[in-house]
Structure formats: structure tokens, C-alpha cells
Amino acid sequence: MDEDTDDILNNIIDDDDDANIQMTPAELIQKMEEIWINEKFAPELLPHEQEIVDLVLSQISAMEDNVETLPSADFKKGFYQLEIDRIRFVVTSYLRQRLEKIETYVLHVLKEDEEREEAYLSEAEQQFALKYKEALEEHFDNATMFYPGLPFEDWKSNFVRPNMNSFVFLKAKSNVEGVVVDRGQGDDNEIVDIKAGSQMLISYKGVSDLIKKGDLRLI
């Protein structure tokens, strides 16, 4: 996030609006952009960040209220509104990407979430996933009535899974030691250390936990 964006956020968010947030407005938006990019490029559904989303939506509301107080003739009002629209796009895109992954991998996502101590799905996403699964099952039930013999049970047992071995670009936020580079040749893997600020292309499977912990971010 550049200095111009910081200035815009500082001008249209009052300090009182930020009282219950442990980050500055600029840091909060930067965090939202990071989880958006991570979700965009990760092959799997990442843990939900509903708390961050709720905070950003709250900030958007506060920003809009503050912009409304500006005179219509104030040329800065248009710039502030553009920034609000940009932030809203980031949030909307993030939520849409998650829903698309849920639709694509719904059986896998629900099965994995049942086995986790902490769910990756938010409550609203879980309800959506269950309803979507029910709709798919109803669709296949109706299809088998007209086309007996369709391998419906195969669909339920051989469901679509994300490709965890796909390659991703990443950037290290801190020094990370002992990262496994999977060369796709069985046990012939390489252990590397990644310095803060460095970038690399690597198999997602070996760094997925580090991305979720926040040591690495996708780019």
C-alpha cells in the first residue's frame, strides 16, 4: 500500500472509528488485500477470515459516512469514493472466490472441515455448502430417474479435489527455514531456507501451512 492510499484512509476514517481495532486503517486494508490475493492464487480453500472481513465492512461504512459530510464541490470527494469502491471490490472478490471454490470442491470441503478442529468455513459458508450439496444430490437423484444406471455413487465417492501440487509464486514476509521443495520424484526433495523479501516459484503443497500461518504470501 502506497503513501497516497494511507493519506486517503487517514483523511476519511476518524480515529474513533478505529478504537476497537488493533491495526491502523491502512494496515487493516493491507491485510484484507493480502488474504484476497492468497485466496485467489491458492488451489485450496483457505481458512476463513470473517473477522477481518467484518472489520473492513465496518470501516467501509464509516468511510462512506465521513465522505457524505464533505461538500459536493470538494474535488477530493471523488478520490475518496474511488478508494471506497476499490476496497469494496476487494472484499466482494474475496468472498466470491471462496464461494466458487466451495461450489467446485463442495464434498471435499465439507469432508475436510468435519475432520478439522477449527473449520475453514465460516458459519454462512457452511450453510451455503450444505444447501449446495443438497441441491447437487437432488439433481443427481432426478437424473437417475430418467437415466437409470448413471454412476451417481461414483460422483459421491470420487469427488473433485484441489490440485495441491500446483505451482505458485510467493514472497516471504519473514525468514523461513526448512522449506521442502517437492521435485515430483518421490523422496528426492530439497530443503531450502527462504529469506524475508525473497520471491520464488514452488509447489503449493510444501508451503501451504506457512501461507496459512502468515510467514509467506502469494503474489
From TrEMBL:
GO terms for biological process: DNA-templated DNA replication; double-strand break repair via break-induced replication. Residues 57-142 form the GINS subunit domain. The keyword 4Fe-4S does not apply. It comes from Zophobas morio. Its main location: nucleus. Belongs to the GINS4/SLD5 family. GO terms for cellular component: GINS complex. PANTHER family: DNA REPLICATION COMPLEX GINS PROTEIN SLD5 (PTHR21206:SF0), SLD5 PROTEIN (PTHR21206). Keywords: DNA replication, Nucleus. Residues 162-219 form the DNA replication complex GINS protein SLD5 C-terminal domain. Pfam families: Sld5, SLD5_C. Gene3D superfamilies: 1.20.58.1030, 3.40.5.60. It is found in: Nucleus. This is DNA replication complex GINS protein SLD5. The GINS complex plays an essential role in the initiation of DNA replication. It comes from the Eukaryota.
